[in-house]
């Protein structure tokens, strides 16, 4: 998917919501456990109930890998279901990969070609030759971890390296990579106060912003400091939406939570 197609979808739906699919069999409604593929059935129900309210889905690969072969098959069914039924929706493989060049190429093939995701999250710390293999894919997007939502972000990312915070070095250096127009970045919603400075370095790039809801990040602050003329934001919520109910009404309740966020986004876009 091109960035322009994503922007068009945001404008049409008046939403920049990304629903995170972090499926935990201990948290999903009991009745789904009787089905042949509880992970896929859960995702399908959530997608059917929320696709008109969001512009992206982000399956977190850990939650599939944890269930072995069945988990990976459920991931494949989920991305195929999205690509076949909702091709306009932006898909993110939250895999946080990155390795030496030839290995990164294989990761890129796995997520961009075999599974046909639009984007994948990547850890930047192995540098240029670990990121560029992902950037080589046309109309696919590489979402680099810049300043993450968790407390551990302060261990390294905000530390000064040659007089500049490491996450700023990541932003600046990544702009020099071949095909850097295919880059997006992760900035946690819990780090909204850093967004003004981040926008000075990457004024137009899309940001994937996790951490609203369960982690306490604030949507209004993120938009105030991080929004661009083309919105430039994908706000992710996982647990706050998909586990709002663990009863038979789970998909309907998820849709209510998604709609509340979408309405908040619409109000910001129309302000
Ligand atoms: O790359 C991510 O998506 C990510 C980066 C980050 O800094 N913080 C973060 O929470 N995430 C992911 O975003 C999702 C957040 O989930 P909730 O806190 O349940 O909304 C999880 O899948 C995390 O792995």
UniProtKB/TrEMBL annotation:
Keyword Cytoplasm recorded: no
Recorded superkingdom: Bacteria
Keywords of this entry: Decarboxylase, Lyase, Pyrimidine biosynthesis
Catalyzed reactions per annotation: orotidine 5'-phosphate + H(+) = UMP + CO2
Positions annotated as active site in the UniProt record: 96
Pathway: Pyrimidine metabolism; UMP biosynthesis via de novo pathway; UMP from orotate: step 2/2
GO molecular function: orotidine-5'-phosphate decarboxylase activity
EC number(s) given by UniProt: 4.1.1.23
InterPro entries, per database record: Aldolase_TIM (IPR013785), OMPdecase_type-2 (IPR011995), OMPdeCOase_dom (IPR001754), RibuloseP-bd_barrel (IPR011060)
Pfam families: OMPdecase (PF00215)
Residues of the Orotidine 5'-phosphate decarboxylase domain: 16-254
Family membership noted in the UniProt record: Belongs to the OMP decarboxylase family. Type 2 subfamily.
Xref: HAMAP family: OMPdecase_type2
The protein's name in its UniProt record: Orotidine 5'-phosphate decarboxylase
